[in-house]
Amino acid sequence: MKLINKITMWFLGVILLVTPVTMFISRNNIKKHLDQAEISRMTGVNDHVYKQLLAGGKPDHYTHGRPIEVSLYQGAMPQQKVQVRKENLAEDDMVKKECRITVDSYYPIGDQIYKISSYNFVLNSQDIFDGMLYTVVWKMLIMVLGVGLTARFLSRIILEPFYRAMKAIKEFDLKRGDSKLKLPHTTTKEFQELNAFLRKMTDKAAADYASVKEFSENASHELQTPLAIVRSKLDLLSQTQIDDRQATLIGDMQSAIERLSHINRSLVLLTKLENQEYKTAESIKFCKVTRNVMDTYEDWIKMKEIRLHSNLDKNVTLQIHPVLAEILIGNLLSNAIRYNDEGGQIRIDLTRQWLRISNTGHPPDLPTADMFSRFKKGNQCNESTGLGLAIVKQICDVNDFSVTYQFEKGWHQVKVQFRQAELPTVEGSGDMSREGQLAVS
Amino acid sequence: MKVLIVEDNRELSSGIADYLTGEKYICEPAYDFETASEKLALFTYDCILVDIMLPDGNGLELLKQIRRDDIRSGILIISAKDALDDKVKGLDEGADDYVIKPFHMSELHARLRAIYRRKKLEGPSNLVSFNEIELNTDTVEAKVNQQLLDVTRKEFDLLLYFIVNKNRVLSKQAIAAHLWGDYTDNLSNFDFVYQHVKNLRKKISTAEGTDYIETVYGLGYKFNTSKQ
Question: By its UniProt entry, which Gene3D superfamilies does this protein fall under (chain A) (predicted)?
Answer without folding.
Answer: 1.10.287.130, Histidine kinase-like ATPase, C-terminal domain
